[in-house]
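pasting for ref
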Amino acid sequence: MRITRNESSKPCAICGRRLLMGEQFSRFSPGGRGELVEVCRLCFEKAIDHGWSREGAPTTPTRAETQRRRGLLSSLFGIARGETEETVLAEPILRRLGTEEVVVVEAADVFNTSPYRRTVGGVARSLGEPHASIVALSGAKAEFVLTIAWDLSWYQYRISLDAAQQVRLVERGHELQELKQPYTNWNARVEEDGRVVPDIARIDSLG
């Protein structure tokens, strides 16, 4: 994390508090637009929750990267995929899945390349392994709701495969009872590093 010491009185872009002389802060780019704003140390996690890109850190995937990831679908029909592209399920399993399941895998891949993965991994180290579900939304756009929940906290992310900002935090809460169906149909797992893996590998064993 790149941390800078404040040499002038500037406001934090999250809480609005003016930074003290010599106070440490980081610069973030809201929405990946390139413009950098200052964020105080107390608001680092909120900036990440908003989907802001930290200066010097990898950004969330762009539209062009999304199109390259769509090569995953092409590969299932005989078109080669780049060797550097990785997915949460192995190629033999992917070839046994239908298009709908493959798109769910792609949604998980998109989340796993976002800064939110690190946030989830950090919370998991404190609260333990969470429940997780990926729910496809109705409509023409390829959109999903990823719910990650512990007994005392939960987060919901909107994953939009065709949007410029593909992952964003949309809801958060504290009680599991606040969540409604189908978001509590736990069909994914979260690994120690925050990586989300859809629980559809069992389909391979049914063939």
